[in-house]
Specification:
The radius of gyration is 30 Å and the shape is globular. The chain has 30 helices and 2 strands. It is mainly α and 528 residues long. β1 and β2 form a beta hairpin. Helices cover 69% and strands 2% of the residues. A two-stranded antiparallel ribbon has the order 1-2. α4 packs antiparallel against α5 and α11 packs parallel to α13.
């Protein structure tokens, strides 16, 4: 007779050697013959191995369904598997079955609720969160920090109920750094930057994820200067034990590099690159792609290519980043060469919709009309990728710049989605290049219909009428603009001096050194 301990060791040893579902079935049959078909310990091990190692949820559910009285650990394992494999409906249905079981059977505990709440996604609706919340309170687990934080995160996924999340946060008996960070991330996700920053400043204790939540939030909401300022504060202000605990990680670096790329802060981007090496951060594909993107956006294409060439494991994102770098700066042939290199490398990497946006942009900048049309057809016919508005925009821009307006209009008419401002703006740009005033008037009117308060579109239409000599129409447009108090987005530029970005708008005198700037400008003008 095998002792329980020896049997446990033997089963675990056999599980380690399983590499196929048939091996697992043999082990299951062996346990059934020993009378352990309903033993929770072994059922749990089989189920977990099936979900984690084999990723076979149907057979895991088969094991689960043949248990007469599964305990809370088995329910948790199965619900966790569904939640991890993006099957929220199955997770919630299984949870419902558990709740409906007779009272003497296994009941939910504080460890199962986080996984159930993770399954309360947009697909199943906010009501599912409220339902689980009420059951949490009834079962007496409402004061457990891990459950409270999971509830907080669940409510924050629904932008319509941020008030419930904040009420829950304020009522928490024990707030830890995770709950603070969850609330901050939720505010950032909803664009409530002020609330997020206020909470961050109130935090009694911060860790790296809490810093990352604000830096990433700033970046995702287009506040790149603020993201960089906070990154600098994280590096230089946090000292001593606090500083060592809050040392930037890969997520911090990637978000900060993204901000550098958008603001053109090449010197700071290089400093961060050096920081990665000095502090022994792993130069993963994640960080390498961010470096390529940053160098590309800052115009340092040689450095971007160097980082790309040193990346050992190139993902599709790596290739896309390099293609887009060259396309962004009009180096069409280099972008196409990288794509051809990707296709020739014989890896499992296949182009996606982002790849073709880069290629079409490259063709637009290089005036490669036939090549662009070829890539558009390759995308739809060879790879079955449905064109998105960005692909149509690139193709219309390509044809418009080449003066092929009949083809451009055919593309617009054949679109399966409604043309947006980018489409009509691209067409208008081509019309201005080639003097097609009639079609330019049509495109400008479309733009005004979409955004009547955008003064820039009205001014363009007035200029078109001026070129046609339709002065009565010019007056009408200007009268409408004045009546609507239409806005025009001012031009904007950045310049980096001593690792600090200075931002200027058209006819802008808000810069603290405006007088000095204008004095220098006047002295330069006087030289001519």
């Amino acid at each position: 007779m095998v002792s329980p301990q020896n049997l446990n060791d033997h089963v675990l040893s056999l599980l380690e050697r399983c590499i196929h579902l048939n091996h697992l079935k043999q082990l299951q049959a062996f346990l059934i013959t020993l009378g352990h078909g309903q033993t929770h310990f072994y059922a749990f091990k089989l189920l977990r191995f099936c979900t984690l190692s084999l990723s076979n949820l149907p057979y895991a559910r088969f094991i689960f369904d043949h248990l007469e009285s599964p305990n809370v650990h088995l329910y948790t394992a199965m619900i966790t598997a569904y939640a991890s494999h993006s099957d929220p409906t199955s997770a919630l249905l299984l949870y419902r079955n558990m709740v409906r079981r007779p009272p003497h059977r296994s009941r939910p505990n504080q460890f199962i609720y986080p996984h159930v709440l993770k399954s309360c996604t947009q697909a199943v609706g906010l009501e599912s969160v409220r339902m689980v919340h009420s059951q949490v309170l009834k079962s007496g687990f409402g004061q457990h920090p891990v459950v409270q934080t999971s509830l907080l995160d669940a409510y924050l996924r629904f932008s319509s109920d941020v008030g419930s999340a904040r009420f829950l946060f304020d009522e928490m008996t024990e707030r830890n750094v995770v709950s603070w960070t969850a609330m901050i991330s939720g505010y950032m996700r909803l664009g409530q930057i002020g609330n997020a920053v206020l909470l961050f400043e109130e935090m009694p204790d911060r860790d790296v994820p809490s810093w990352n939540a604000v830096i990433a939030g700033y970046t995702q909401n287009g506040l790149f200067t603020e993201a960089i300022s906070l990154f600098r504060r994280m590096i230089f202000v946090e000292e001593g034990d606090q500083g060592r605990k809050n040392r930037p990680n890969q997520v911090t670096v990637v978000c900060s590099l993204s901000a550098c790329g958008h603001t053109g802060m090449l010197q700071l981007g290089k400093w961060i690159h050096g920081y990665v090496y000095r502090n022994g951060l792993v130069l993963s594909s994640f960080v390498s792609n961010a470096l390529v993107d940053m160098y590309g956006k800052c115009g340092s294409l040689k450095e971007a290519r160097k980082v790309f060439d040193r990346t050992l494991e190139r993902s599709l994102t790596s290739w896309n980043s390099m293609i887009n770098c060259f396309a962004l700066h009009g180096q069409s042939q280099n972008a196409i060469s990288v794509f051809e290199e990707m296709m020739a490398c014989g890896s499992d990497v296949e182009p996606d919709e982002v790849t073709f946006i880069g290629l079409l942009n490259a063709c637009t900048h290089g005036g490669l009309v036939e090549k662009g049309r070829l890539y558009f057809e390759m995308m739809t016919q060879n790879y079955g990728i449905e064109p998105e508005i960005e692909h149509y925009g690139c193709l219309v821009d390509l044809l418009g710049r080449a003066g092929r307006f009949e083809e451009a209009m055919e593309v617009v008419k054949g679109m399966r989605i409604e043309p947006d401002e980018v489409i009509w703006g691209s067409l208008l740009n081509g019309c201005k290049i080639h003097g097609r005033i009639d079609l330019a008037e049509f495109a400008a009117k479309k733009l005004i219909d979409m955004d009547p308060n955008n003064g820039g579109y009205g001014i363009m239409l007035a200029n078109i009428y001026g070129e046609l000599g339709k002065w009565d129409e010019v007056r009408k447009v200007r009268k409408v603009l004045k009546k609507q108090n239409a806005y025009k987005t001012p031009g904007c530029s950045w310049i980096e001096i001593d690792n600090q970005v200075h931002q200027f708008y058209s006819i802008d005198k808000t810069h603290p050194r405006t007088e000095e700037i204008y004095d220098i400008l006047e002295s330069l003008i006087s030289l001519y």
